[in-house]
Inverse folding.
C-alpha cells in the first residue's frame, strides 16, 4: 500500500450555540481545510461525514453536507462511532486512499449539540451505553467515567487534586486558543472552594471542573495519496499508524476499570504499524472528555506506567515544555466537545504542530505526533500516529 | 388473531425509564415480579450470562435456561450522581455500580438504604429486586 498524507486541516470555532444549521456549521471547518490545502472541492474524490446521531433531526447527513459543500457527484458515506467518529472517519479515508480507490478524501466531522437541552444531551449520551440493561438505571457519561475515576483512585491512590491539575493545565492553553469554548483561567483553588461552581459534584468523584462542555463545532481533514500530496502540498504530514479497538458496551463485560483496554489495544496497533514506541512521541492529543480520561490516557498510551500518570501531571511533564506535551491546545476540557468534530480537531492540532505552525503552543521541533480519540465510555478507541 | 393478540411488552417495566419494550428475554421481567434476579446459561456450552442473553455468542446456540443471581459479589466501583439525565431527576441522588460475582458481573444501582459511609470498593453486596416509586421494577445492591 502507498503512503497516505494529510494535506489540509480545518475546524470551526467551537461555541456553545452555533447561529446556523448543521450544513452551515460543517462549511466553516471545510472551508478552512480547503484553503489550508490550497485545493478546490473538485479535487476531492470522496467524502466521509462523521457525527453522532440524534443531536439534530437530519437523517443521513452525508448527502446534505456533500451537496452544501459542493462535493456532488462524488461518493459520500456517513460514519459514526460516537465521540471518536471523525478518527474512525480518518481511518476509513486512510484505507480508501491506501487501497488506491481514491486519491483525495475529505473527512468532515460536525455536531450541533445545542439543538437539544443539556439534560436531553446527557440522556442521549447515556444511551451511547447499553440501552437495554444500563440506561434504565439513569446512566450518563460523567457517572460512567466517575466509576473509572473511583477505581483508579482506589487502585493507585490518585486524588481529586491530581485530576484538578489536568483541568488547570487544559485551561492554561484554552485561554490562548481562539477556537475554544472555555477561555477562562482555572486554578486549583477553584476546585477547593465549595462556593465555586468548579467544585460542585456532578457524579462523584467527578466535579464540574472535571467535565468538558457540550459544544457546536465542525472539523475537516483532507487525506491524499503520496503522489497527490507531493503535487498539492509543501508540508504533507504522513499517517504512520492507525489503530482501533472495541470492548463490551455493558460495563459488566469488562475486567479493567483503571484504564481503557480499547486505548491500550489501539495504541499497540498504531505503534506497531508506525514502527515506534511511546518514547518516540513528541506531542499528543488525548481524549480528555473528563480529567480522569486524560489520566488514564497517559498510562494506556505508555507515557507513564499504570498508576504513575499522576506523577506526569504533578511534574508538569505534559505541559508544552515538558517531556511529553499533551493537549496543549486546551483539550476537550477547554475547546469543548462537539462529538463528531472532536477527532478532526485533535488531528488538526497535531498536523499544525508537526508543520511548526502551532504558534504560541508550538512544541519544540516535533517529528512524531499522536491522537487518542475515544468513543462512548471506552467503547470505541482510535489511536492515530502522524509524522513529518 | 389480529387485534386480539397480546403483544408481550414486559420489558417496558424495567428501570425508571425503559428504552426497550420487547426482548427475547422478556421473562427477566416475569422473574423480577416473582422476586428473582436471573441471568441465562447456555445449555450447549454452559456459559453464564448476566445481563441475560437469548443467544450464545460462543457456540451460536439459542438453547438457554435461566439461573438465579444468588449469594454475594464484591463492589468493583461506583459513582453517585448529583445530576441526572432527563426522566431520572426524581431519583436523585443515586449511585450506579458494578458488582463482581466472579463468573459474571452485574451492573445496577446501590440501594438507597445503604448508608453512604458503608459504600466502599471491595465491600460484599447482594442483588435484590426493587420496586421504584413509579411502579417500575429494577434491582439494587444491598450490603450482605
Amino acid at each position: 500500500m502507498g503512503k497516505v498524507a494529510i494535506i489540509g486541516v480545518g475546524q470551526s470555532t467551537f461555541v456553545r450555540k452555533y447561529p446556523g444549521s448543521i450544513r452551515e456549521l460543517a462549511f466553516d471547518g471545510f472551508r478552512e481545510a480547503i484553503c489550508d490545502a490550497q485545493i478546490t472541492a473538485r479535487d476531492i474524490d470522496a467524502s466521509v461525514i462523521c457525527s453522532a446521531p440524534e443531536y439534530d433531526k437530519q437523517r443521513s447527513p452525508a448527502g446534505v453536507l456533500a451537496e452544501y459543500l459542493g462535493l456532488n457527484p462524488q461518493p459520500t458515506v456517513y460514519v459514526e462511532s460516537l465521540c471518536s467518529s471523525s478518527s474512525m472517519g480518518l481511518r476509513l479515508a486512510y484505507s480508501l486512499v491506501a487501497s488506491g480507490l481514491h486519491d483525495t478524501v475529505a473527512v468532515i466531522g460536525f455536531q450541533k449539540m445545542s439543538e437539544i437541552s443539556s439534560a436531553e444531551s446527557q440522556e442521549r449520551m447515556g444511551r451511547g451505553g447499553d440501552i437495554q440493561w444500563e440506561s434504565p438505571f439513569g446512566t450518563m457519561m460523567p457517572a460512567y467515567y466517575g466509576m473509572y475515576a473511583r477505581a483508579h483512585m482506589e487502585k493507585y491512590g490518585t486524588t481529586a487534586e491530581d485530576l484538578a491539575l489536568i483541568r488547570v493545565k487544559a485551561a492554561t492553553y484554552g485561554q490562548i486558543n481562539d477556537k475554544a469554548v472555555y477561555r477562562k483561567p482555572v486554578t486549583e483553588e477553584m476546585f477547593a472552594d465549595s462556593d465555586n461552581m468548579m467544585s460542585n459534584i456532578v457524579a462523584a468523584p467527578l466535579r464540574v471542573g472535571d467535565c468538558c462542555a457540550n459544544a457546536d463545532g465542525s472539523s475537516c481533514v483532507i487525506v491524499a495519496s503520496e503522489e497527490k500530496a507531493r503535487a498539492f502540498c509543501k508540508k504533507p504530514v504522513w499517517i504512520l499508524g492507525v489503530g482501533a479497538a472495541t470492548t463490551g458496551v455493558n460495563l459488566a463485560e469488562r475486567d479493567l476499570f483503571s484504564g481503557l483496554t480499547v486505548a491500550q489495544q489501539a495504541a499497540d496497533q498504531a505503534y506497531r504499524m508506525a514502527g515506534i514506541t511511546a518514547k518516540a512521541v513528541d506531542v499528543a492529543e488525548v481524549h480528555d472528555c473528563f480529567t480522569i480520561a486524560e489520566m488514564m490516557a497517559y498510562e494506556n498510551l505508555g507515557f507513564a506506567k499504570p498508576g504513575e500518570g499522576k506523577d506526569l501531571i504533578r511534574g508538569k511533564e505534559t505541559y508544552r515544555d515538558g517531556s511529553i506535551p499533551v493537549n496543549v491546545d486546551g483539550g476537550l476540557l477547554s475547546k469543548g466537545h462537539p462529538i463528531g468534530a472532536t477527532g478532526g480537531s485533535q488531528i488538526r492540532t497535531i498536523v499544525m504542530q508537526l508543520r511548526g505552525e502551532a504558534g504560541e503552543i508550538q512544541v519544540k521541533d516535533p517529528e512524531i505526533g499522536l491522537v487518542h480519540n475515544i468513543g462512548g465510555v471506552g467503547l470505541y478507541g482510535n489511536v492515530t500516529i502522524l509524522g513529518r | 388473531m389480529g387485534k386480539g393478540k397480546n403483544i408481550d411488552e414486559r420489558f417496558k417495566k424495567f428501570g425508571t425509564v425503559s428504552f426497550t419494550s420487547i426482548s427475547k428475554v422478556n421473562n427477566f421481567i416475569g422473574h423480577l415480579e416473582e422476586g428473582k434476579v436471573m441471568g441465562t446459561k447456555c445449555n450447549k456450552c454452559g456459559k453464564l450470562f448476566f445481563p441475560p442473553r437469548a443467544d450464545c455468542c460462543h457456540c451460536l446456540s439459542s438453547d438457554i435456561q435461566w439461573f438465579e443471581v444468588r449469594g454475594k459479589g464484591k463492589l468493583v466501583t461506583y459513582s453517585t450522581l448529583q445530576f441526572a439525565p432527563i426522566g431520572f431527576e426524581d431519583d436523585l441522588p443515586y449511585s450506579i455500580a458494578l458488582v463482581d460475582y466472579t463468573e459474571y458481573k452485574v451492573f445496577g444501582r446501590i440501594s438507597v438504604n445503604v448508608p453512604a459511609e458503608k459504600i466502599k470498593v471491595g465491600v460484599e453486596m447482594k442483588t435484590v429486586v426493587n420496586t421504584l416509586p413509579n411502579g417500575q421494577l429494577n434491582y439494587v445492591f444491598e450490603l450482605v
